[in-house]
Amino acid sequence: MGNYNRRHDSGNGSGLWAGVIILCIGLFIFLKKMGLELPNWLFSWPMILIAIGCIMGVKGKFQGIAWFIVTMVGCIFLVGDIVPFDWNLRRFIWPSILILIGIYIIGRSTSKKSQYEKIFSADDSANSDDFIQATTIFSGTNKVILSKNFKGGNVTTVFGGTELNFSQADIEGEVFLEITTLFAGVEIIVPSSWDVRVDVNTVFGGIEDKRIVPPAIPSNKTLILKGSCTFGGVDLKSY
Known about the structure:
This protein is an alpha/beta fold and 239 residues long. The chain folds into two domains: 2-99; 115-237, no CATH class. The chain has helices spanning 2-33, 45-59, 66-82, 93-122; strands at 131-137, 140-144, 152-158, 161-165, 173-182, 185-189, 195-203, 206-209, 221-230, 233-237. The strands form two sheets. A five-stranded parallel sheet has the order 1-3-5-9-7. Helix 2 runs antiparallel to helix 3. Mean pLDDT is 76; it is low at 1-12.
């Protein structure tokens, strides 16, 4: 029952914000029908993207880059509609996004490397096999984790696919796995005895739990998924 309750709580938060967005759109349309002069850009899809990006940032405490990309795309299209330019600003969207993604991946890889080095120095039993750090861009990655003392990691997938198989791995206590998915898909296979908590922000994407969940059994093995899923999907499976 614990698994279902946690997923249900997360869904309530997402539903609340979705309701706020729909409520605001309805109010704007209602006011416009009453004859009030409101700018057309208030009802445009770039404004919806900006609202979604801001909500993602608030929910994720403005960590990661997905919320910023979504907000930036909305702002660029919105500015192009409000202010006339002699040149097309929108042609710089994708190069700018790729540059930001590159900077983000480099920065995060450097920070995670330092974090792992601190853990290695503090825990003599830890080794590199107990962590996973995978970056997949325009390709596919398939990893089988064999560590019996897995301690977490981060996975970034951009325009590609990643499969992580934990069926032969083991954990103790709570372990965090941070995933960032952009125009990509991630499949995670975990033992059915593990508890899995999902705390991932999704925009035009989804997380599907396809696990065979056993009867409620007290477990001290919890995998916590954090991060963002934008224009992509994450599948959870167990065998």
